[in-house]
Specification:
Radius of gyration: 24 Å
Structural class: alpha+beta
Largest sheet: 5 strands, antiparallel
CATH architecture of the largest domain: 2-Layer Sandwich
Number of helices: 16
Shape: elongated
Oligomer: single chain
Number of domains: 3
Helix content: 40-55%
Strand order of the largest sheet: 2-1-5-4-3
CATH superfamily of the largest domain: Transcription factor LuxR-like, autoinducer-binding domain
Number of strands: 10
Distance between the termini: 53 Å
Strand content: 15-25%
CATH class of the largest domain: Alpha Beta
Order of helices and strands: HHEEHHEHHHEEHHEEHHEEEHHHHH
């Protein structure tokens, strides 16, 4: 249960997404989070387990000497790190469950670094990013004597704000640290992906050069009046649901939305867009047409299936329709949904599928997936 005022929590959510566009605001996020929790010490920190080195340490409430001593000496002695490296992204775990307090109190880290800081050896944290060796984590420490009075509020707040923190961090990674303020249009031109800003109706208010190319030609992803219109009905509905959720301020962006623009498989991700140029919050946002409300990022999938599809089409002589069908199936679609999107009978699509399999020399769709994946790793792509 979220034990904070609704307007205070809403302000924190908006600040979180603003920090995704302007990394200098992460310090404000930590300060506001600490004020909502109560007496707490907050750290946004990264660690490389394979090398046992710190990858960054942004804090609130830690004295300068404790901040510097962590970076200089204690980062590789933090007993929570090895355990945190195994925590799933998004899981909120109380510190006492991650590491038994009795074990903690026997460590150098506790006696020489934690205990001198008002005995802040408990609390909770949430992992925002993790790969095979690294993780980024938000850790909220409180005093042992405050555990009973603060822990429930801390856990509820982290559960609620965690998805927004993850989404904002992913947005920040996409922007590669670029600061997006009032001059966001210039900054977004530098992003190596197609970026579109949408208003609350889904109309495009800005598109960088890469995105403009997607707005033209027979496979355009927008209507003549510049509203997003994907040919894949399920993808369009998912995008509209996510935009509605952003406007309502209820949830962060949904997962990646996969669809095809002609022969090209694409992935769409939608994020709230809150900057100095667009500070208005729902529901007042609905009164202002043309105000950037959400950022839509379009990219090719990182899976080898996307590249392998083009190699397979050229090698086996698939027609554009057969290639689009194959890509639709590889992206998780079905023969029936492809027929509905194309406005043709399911019998026509089944005949097209038989042609795809015959030209590829395989009998089953599973074998087709394996074939395309193998071609995605082929030297022909170089």
């Amino acid at each position: 249960m979220l034990d904070v005022a609704e307007d205070s929590y809403g302000a924190l959510v908006r600040l979180v997404y603003s920090a995704g566009l302007d990394r200098l605001k992460w310090s404000e996020v930590l300060a506001d989070l600490s004020s909502l929790i109560g007496r707490s010490w907050i750290a946004l920190h990264g660690h490389d387990i394979s090398r046992n080195v710190n990858l960054g340490f942004l804090t609130h409430n830690y004295a300068p000497e404790h901040h510097s001593s962590y970076l200089q000496h204690f980062a590789d002695r933090n007993p929570w790190n090895n355990r945190a490296a195994r925590v799933p992204v998004g899981a909120v775990i109380p510190s006492r469950q991650l590491l038994d307090p009795g074990v903690l109190r026997r460590t150098e880290f506790y006696n020489d670094w934690i205990r001198p800081q008002e005995d802040i050896g408990t609390g909770a944290g949430v992992t925002l990013f993790r790969d095979h060796a690294r993780f980024l984590r938000l850790s909220c420490n409180i005093r042992f004597r405050d555990l009973e009075s603060i822990e429930a509020r801390l856990l509820g707040l982290l559960e609620a704000i965690g998805p927004h923190l993850q989404a904002s961090f992913q947005l920040s990674r996409r922007l590669a640290g670029a600061r997006v303020g009032q001059h966001y249009q210039d900054a977004l031109q530098l992003i190596p992906e197609a970026i579109l800003l949408l208003d609350h109706t889904g109309r495009i208010t800005f598109a960088n050069a890469r995105a403009e190319r997607l707005l033209r030609g027979p496979n355009a992803v927008a209507t003549a009046d510049r509203r997003i219109a994907l040919s894949d009905r399920s993808a369009q509905q998912a995008l509209e649901r996510t935009l509605a959720a952003i406007l309502q301020g209820t949830v962060g962006p949904g997962g990646p939305i996969r669809f095809h623009a002609g022969m090209s498989p694409l992935v769409a991700e939608l994020f709230p867009f809150i900057s100095e140029a667009a500070p208005i919050r729902p529901p007042l946002l609905l009164l202002l047409d043309g105000l950037p409300t959400a950022m839509l990022i379009l990219r090719r999938p990182t899976s080898p299936l996307g590249n392998g599809l083009q190699v397979a089409a050229a090698r086996h002589g698939w027609s554009p329709t057969e290639t689009a069908l194959c890509g639709h199936l590889l992206a998780g679609g079905s023969i029936r949904s492809f027929a509905e999107h194309r406005g043709v009978s399911i019998h026509t699509v089944r005949n097209q599928m038989r042609s795809v399999l015959e030209k590829a020399g395989v009998r089953r769709q599973s074998a087709l997936v394996a074939l395309v994946a193998s071609l995605g790793r082929s030297p022909e792509l170089d």
